[in-house]
Amino acid sequence: TPSAGGRLALGFTLGEIGTLKIGASAMYGTYDPDNDLDYLLLGGDLSLRIDDFSLRAEYLIRRTKMAMGDDPATTFHYGPGADGTYDPYFLKDGWYVEAEYGVAEDWTLVGRFDGMRRLGNVAIGSKLRKKSLVFRYTLGAHWRAHTHVSLKLSSELYDFSDFDDEAAIHLGIVGRF
Q1: Which of 98, 120, 96, 113 is nearest to 54 (CA)?
Q2: How far is the C-alpha of 151 from the C-alpha of 27, rounded, in Å?
Q3: How far is 43 from 62, CA to CA, in rounded Å?
Q4: For 163, which of 13, 105, 119, 154 is 20 to 30 Å away at the CA?
Q5: Is 76 exposed, middle or buried (CB count within 10 Å of its CB: 0-12, 13-18, 19+)?
Q6: By C-alpha distance, which of 51, 42, 47 is closest to 5?
Q7: DSSP category for residue 123
Q8: What is the DSSP string of 31-84?
Q9: C-beta atoms surrounding 132 within 10 Å
Q10: Which of 5-9, 81-85, 104-108, 135-139 has the highest mean pLDDT?
């Protein structure tokens, strides 16, 4: 199945204090044997580092064509548009913004906000709506206990448009080789 894509990245030095990196990417292709169902991906990212502070952000969007079948009314939850036809595409996009700050030699604080959205028709029986969203808020700390071992603790709040909200706490041990 044919596809094509590319990435462009630029980096800048901010004197002795840090760096700024900006990137963009794109990909287009089909994902079925007959090459009828196409997709398009577009993305952008940014990374800024100033001394002990880092900021990263990324945005990605994907437009995908769905197989409609012989009778979309028996497959899809939402009916045709004003013109009497079913829209064969759905759209997903997602993003995050993350900040890290080194507060001591072995301690880093992390804050993150990310989300994902889906727009478009869904299969009959799906719990998703025509427009569904999820946001996640994260606060955490990272302690480097040894050159090759770290401990990470974070709390997360999930805000769903179509489901009950959730909260989580994570504790992880990280080993480096």
Answers
A1: 98
A2: 37
A3: 9
A4: 154
A5: buried
A6: 42
A7: B
A8: -STTS--EEEEEEEEEEEEETTEEEEEEEEEEEEEPP--S-GGGTBSS---TTS
A9: 19
A10: 135-139
- Cβ atoms of 133 and 114 within 8 Å: the answer is no
Q: Is the pLDDT of residue 130 over 70?
A: yes
Three-state DSSP at 102 gives: strand
How confident is the model over 77-127, as pLDDT tens digits? 998 989 989 999 999 999 999 999 999 999 999 999 999 999 999 999 999
Residue 48, pLDDT > 60, answer yes
Torsion from C-alpha of 21, 23, 117, 125, nearest 10 degrees = -130
Report yes or no: 143 and 115 within 8 Å, Cβ to Cβ.
Answer: no
**Which residues, at least 6 apart from 85, have a Cβ–Cβ distance to it below 8 Å?**
none
Round to whole Å and give the CA distance between 50 and 72: 53
Other CB atoms closer than 10 Å to residue 121's CB: what's the count?
22
Residue in this structure with the two tokens 């880092």, named with its chain if needed: 54
